[in-house]
Design a protein that fits this description.
By secondary structure, the chain is α+β, with helices and mostly antiparallel strands. The protein is built from 24 helices and 24 strands. The strands form nine sheets. It has a five-stranded mixed β-sheet with strand order 4-3-5-17-18, covered by helices on one side. It has a five-stranded antiparallel β-sheet with strand order 7-6-22-21-20. A hairpin with a 6-residue loop joins strand 6 and strand 7.
Length: about 750
């Protein structure tokens, strides 16, 4: 008869277990460990009930690690991640066949004994004594459950796992004591439910629901008799009886389970024979774990979500504590990723850049006013094979990105303009802007110690025809380097530093920008597309910067909502300044270097950027309701994008407006299809005497006056590479100081 307890005291069986477990059985069989009887007498030193009672009985049962689902903003599945593939289900969601099969083969007297089965122990003692070794164990289902709890608690810690699985007397005595506690606190049905949810069934499947899905692609509640018997047989040795690798061994083991079920009366003999006659028919669902399985190229965004979780103190005081929560899983994480925007980004990437090209591209989109990351993709997929990578080109190093980011070229110039406007400079400010000039002798810094041009470094424009005077509108549209260096020389570096701080602009290694003219005018320092998209979103949001955010909500399996980090918004510039920048950058698309990026059906603005030797090309642009950054280049910075084929198209020279621009255009157009098309607030830009810049013969750089296809600054005329690129700066802020270029290899387009 079952010995049910209501929590009063120990049953006679348990009292006997307390004594026999440490005295008579201490060297023979205890809680499932069977040893030759010859060792019994030597292990009874602690063989008293008092010694047994000294063992702590407070077993902490950790939450079971489960799958975490990462969803997009509409609830669609991006990826499933887990340290252990498990989905906890109640007993009523498990086939009765499965419940009977596991009890029959693992502990047929489960409902009749307490924490320890004395009959089973004595039977094992007798058998092992006859065999002279370990021929039969005596663990109850409860004891096995306790052992699995220790294994679960150990997680990926090898030392703790070894302790949890060691076959020692002390460990087995402890398991017995805990088993008695579990039997007292839980009922038989709860123990069975917990056991079926914690047990490992092979093929990376933990728990019966994951196992049922893995082997048969069905829910545990729908398992047939034969299927349940096969899964129950796996528990003893998941690798030996794995039906995927050895169906014959699995069939033999299944039939043993069926025979046992018939013997104990769970099924009839006829049912057993019929099930034995049926071949095992698998319908295997392969494991789909991790960001590598993400759809629409969202693997890098998925990995970014993980990095956000592990790095943000809102999820735990230390990275180790946060990692435990992540590995335990069971979370439903709804993110900001917009499926339409993500698909549009990936479609555009595939159209313009091939996976096996010498260069790569990364595209990131952010929503102005909220900081929500709507899309994040790149041409080198998330993976471990050739032309794949685990480096996320869209983000900073600390979040899984490249070591230093990528030099941004002239996409940095709007930050200088915004700082100058905030300092009171008019939008029609005019500077001489010669083709070539030395950097100012001295430029004021935030520290009070001015930067000095001790090396006599110079800066030049892309084409010799670019000779001022220019006002800000023309200088921005043409991306005139000397204009912005003169502007910086007049306002000083500190206003630009303060502006970039407000815009969240840092280098790819998360460090602040150095205070030197090349870094603060020509984009010589490496940055990430996410940083640039977030900063430009401030212009679209009329001067208010919002930190990028990726997570909308997190819910646990218990239905509890975890606190998540929110975007922080603060004013970075006046609305007037932002509206002026928007007007200026509309000109870049309307008649400047970014014409190939222009959207036909909605207001848009943006800026091109091309760095020295054309190792990097950028287009960063926005509409009132979306901001996006596109980078194209070599992740190793070793490829000069001259005379190169990208996406099946040949280019003599790559410009920010020529390759990144069309990528941006197609991605943004697709992302916003069907969405409202608001307009920017326009600001008239005039002035007392706005200079008329003559169109010079051959002045046909991409988007400039004079037409041309944009592949050559001057059709039919070639120039030395160093003349066009502005010297041998290496892109890391270290110029050659030879007077032929600008320090740091800044951008001219």
């Amino acid at each position: 008869m079952p010995q049910n307890r209501s929590g009063g005291g120990l049953t006679a069986t348990q009292q006997a277990a307390k004594f026999l477990g440490v005295s008579v059985l201490s060297g023979v069989v205890l809680a499932g460990i069977a040893m030759p009887a010859a060792g019994a007498l030597g292990l009874a030193a602690k063989g008293t009930v008092q010694g047994f009672d000294e063992i702590p009985a407070n077993m902490k049962r950790p939450p079971l690690s489960q799958r975490t689902q990462i969803l997009d903003s509409e609830g669609g599945l991006i990826a499933t991640v887990y340290s252990r593939d498990r989905k906890v289900v109640p007993l009523e969601a498990i086939s009765p066949y499965m419940q009977k099969a596991i009890v029959a083969i693992e502990d047929s007297r489960f409902y009749e004994h307490g924490a320890v089965d004395l009959k089973g122990v004595l039977r094992a003692v007798n058998r092992n004594a006859q065999e002279g070794g370990v021929a039969q164990g005596a663990s109850t289902l409860t004891q096995q459950y306790v052992k699995n709890v220790f294994v679960e608690e150990a997680g990926d810690d090898r030392d703790k796992f070894a302790q949890a699985t060691q076959q020692t007397l002390g460990r087995k005595i402890q398991e017995l004591k805990y088993a008695i506690q579990v039997e007292k606190e839980l009922g038989k049905k709860t123990i069975l439910e917990n056991y079926l949810n914690i047990t490992f069934f092979g093929q990376q499947a933990y728990g019966i629901e994951a196992a049922s899905q893995r082997y048969f692609s069905k829910r545990a509640k729908d398992l047939t008799l034969g299927e349940a018997a096969m899964l129950a047989g796996l528990v003893q040795s998941p690798s030996r009886y794995d039906p995927v690798n050895d169906v014959q061994e699995a069939t033999k083991r299944r039939n043993i389970v069926l025979e046992r079920m018939a013997t104990v009366g769970d099924i009839s003999r006829a049912e057993a024979e019929q099930a034995k006659a049926e071949p095992i028919q698998l319908n295997v669902t392969r494991p789909k774990n991790g960001c590598i399985t993400a759809r629409d190229g969202a693997g890098f965004f998925c990995d970014y979500v993980r990095e956000v979780f592990l790095s943000n103190p809102v999820f735990g005081k230390s990275r180790e504590a946060r990692a435990k929560v992540w590995n335990r899983g069971g979370l439903t994480i709804r993110t900001t990723l917009d499926p339409q925007a993500q698909k549009a980004a990936q479609d555009s990437i595939k159209q313009h850049v091939n996976q096996d090209d010498k260069v790569a591209t990364a595209v990131t989109m952010v929503q102005p006013g909220t900081g929500k990351i709507l899309a994040m993709g790149q041409s080198k997929p998330y993976g471990f094979d050739k032309n794949e990578t685990q480096i996320n080109y869209s983000v900073n190093k600390g979040m899984g990105g490249s070591n230093y980011g990528f030099p941004t070229g002239s996409t940095f110039k709007p930050f200088v303009a915004a700082a100058a406007l905030e300092q009171g400079k008019p939008a029609w400010q005019v500077y001489p802007s010669p083709y070539k000039m030395p950097y100012p002798d001295s430029v004021q810094s935030c520290s009070g110690t001015p930067w000095r041009n001790v090396g006599g470094d110079t800066v030049e424009n892309e084409n010799e025809s670019e000779v001022g005077p220019y006002d800000l509108r023309d200088a921005m549209a043409k991306s005139v380097n000397t204009y912005f260096v003169q502007m910086l020389g007049e306002i000083g570096m500190c206003p630009v530093v303060e502006m970039t701080d407000k815009l969240g602009v840092v280098m790819g290694d998360d460090k602040k920008l150095p205070e030197k003219p090349s870094a603060l005018t020509l984009g010589s320092q490496g940055m990430s597309p996410l940083t640039m998209a977030g900063a430009y979103a401030t212009f679209a949001n009329r001067g208010t910067y919002c930190t990028p955010t990726a997570i909308e909500s997190i819910r646990t399996t218990e239905g509890k909502n975890l606190r998540v980090p929110r975007s922080k918004c603060q004013r970075a510039m006046s609305e007037r300044t932002a509206d002026t920048i928007n007007t200026l950058l509309r000109g870049v698309i309307d008649s400047g270097t970014g014409q190939e990026a222009g959207l036909e059906s909605r207001d848009s603005a943006g800026k091109t950027g091309t760095t020295d030797s054309r190792r990097n090309a950028w287009f960063v642009g926005y509409t009132p309701n979306l901001s996006g950054a596109v980078w194209v280049g070599s992740p190793t910075q070793e490829v000069k994008m001259e005379y190169i084929t990208i996406g099946g198209r040949y280019h003599d020279k790559v410009f920010g407006g020529r390759v990144p621009g069309p990528i941006w255009k197609d991605a943004v157009a697709g992302a916003l299809e069907g969405h409202p098309a608001p307009d920017f607030a326009r600001v008239p830009i005039g002035g007392p005497q706005r200079p008329q810049v003559p169109t010079r013969p051959g002045d046909n750089k991409p988007g400039g006056p004079g037409g041309g296809d944009g592949n050559e600054p001057f059709p039919g005329i070639s120039f030395p590479t160093d003349l066009l690129s502005g010297g041998n700066g290496n892109g890391n802020g270290q110029g050659n100081g030879n007077g032929n270029g600008r320090p740091g290899g800044g951008g001219d387009r």
